[in-house]
Design goal:
The chain has a two-stranded antiparallel sheet. The protein is mostly helical and 102 residues long. It has one domain (14-85). The radius of gyration is 32 Å and the shape is rod-shaped. It has two helices and two strands, in the order H-E-E-H.
Length: 102
């Protein structure tokens, strides 16, 4: 869990440095829209759009996993309660006496 976080921070740092080193003015066209902006701004907006799309793709699995873990925790609690009730000390049942050699 810690290694992906560290790798993400390093890649994010490299991305920010890359964006800040590319400050030329560019013209961007998309479908019928066209605008002029700093290359750094365009790159940063593209980077943020990628982050948002990635999070939106991951969100359903995160929600599904969270629901599954909640159900498992509830089931564990139920089983622990049943186990505690069945482990209540009961009086030992008398052993039936049998006659041997009659």
């Amino acid at each position: 869990m810690l290694i992906p976080l560290i790798v993400g921070i390093i890649l994010g740092g490299f991305s920010v440095v890359f964006v800040l080193q590319n400050v030329a003015i560019v013209s961007v066209a998309f479908l019928s829209w066209q605008f002029t902006a700093s290359l750094a701004l365009v790159l940063f907006a593209t980077l943020m759009a990628g982050v948002v799309v990635t999070l939106l793709i991951l969100l359903p699995n995160v929600i599904k996993d969270s629901i599954y873990v909640t159900r498992l925790n509830r089931r564990i609690k139920e089983l622990e309660e049943n186990n505690a009730q069945s482990n209540v000390r009961r009086a030992p049942e008398p052993v039936p006496q049998t006659e041997v050699g009659v």
